[in-house]
Amino acid sequence: MAFPNKKEIESVLKKLEKTQGTLMLPENPTALEQFRWDICQKFIKFKYKNKLTHEQMGEIMEVDKGKVSKILRHRINEFSTDRLISYLQKLKPNTKLKVS
Question: What is the DSSP string of 17-79?
């Protein structure tokens, strides 16, 4: 297998610019950023523990699969903390959140 030429590399890089992967916490997150991150982690754990699709989670949460995808990838700027908590409570009604 030959190394790709410059044109092929540029094409791949251009495609990658349009993708949206999972966001990570900033280097020194605020308490709120950490709290919201932790909430998203609970969604991820629930999804994998229960072997659910995005569609199945969306049905439970009463949102479309696009919003589920955003939450699972920590792309939550459009969601208030209250909204994230209400979605989580639909998945796990007995959820208790701790702020320390």
Answer: HT--------SS--HHHHHHHHHHHHHHHHHHHTT--HHHHHHHHTS-HHHHHHHHTT--TTS
State residue 99's pLDDT score. Answer: 74
| Contact between 73 and 22 (Cβ < 8 Å) | yes
| 97: DSSP letter | -
Confidence tier at 64 by pLDDT (50, 70, 90): very high
10 in a structural domain = no
Q: What are phi and psi of 91, to 5 degrees?
A: -80, -40
Question: Would you say residue 66 lies in a domain?
Answer: yes
Other CB atoms within 10 A of residue 79 CB: 19
Q: pLDDT tens, 78-97? A: 999 999 999 999 999 998 87
Domain count, the chain: 1
